[in-house]
Fold this protein.
Amino acid sequence: MTPRGKKLPSGACPIKKTAELLSDTWTILIVRDLLSGGKRFSELERHLETISTRTLAVKLERLIREKLAKKSGVAYALTAKGRHLGAIFDAMSKYGKKYL
């Protein structure tokens, strides 16, 4: 938090940075699926029925680049950094169940 009336530089807000990282539906759904454990590309593709192969590949590449996920052999899994998003997802789930 900042003192009343003070503004953070736009790039310094941790909420903004996190929101930008998870700013699209596919990324959120991929992370959600990986929170339950490692998955093969084909498992993710099957579970996310309408995602294109290209979109899934691009989103996974970004998660790896951001060090939120890793590829071990043929499976994708979240890193410790990625697993820390679980608390955010739990809060979003509780909010959605209660208010939406």
Observations:
- The mean pLDDT is 93.
- DSSP finds six helices and three strands in the chain.
- Residues 14-99 form a domain with the Arc Repressor Mutant, subunit A fold (CATH 1.10.10.10).
- The two ends are 28 Å apart (CA to CA).
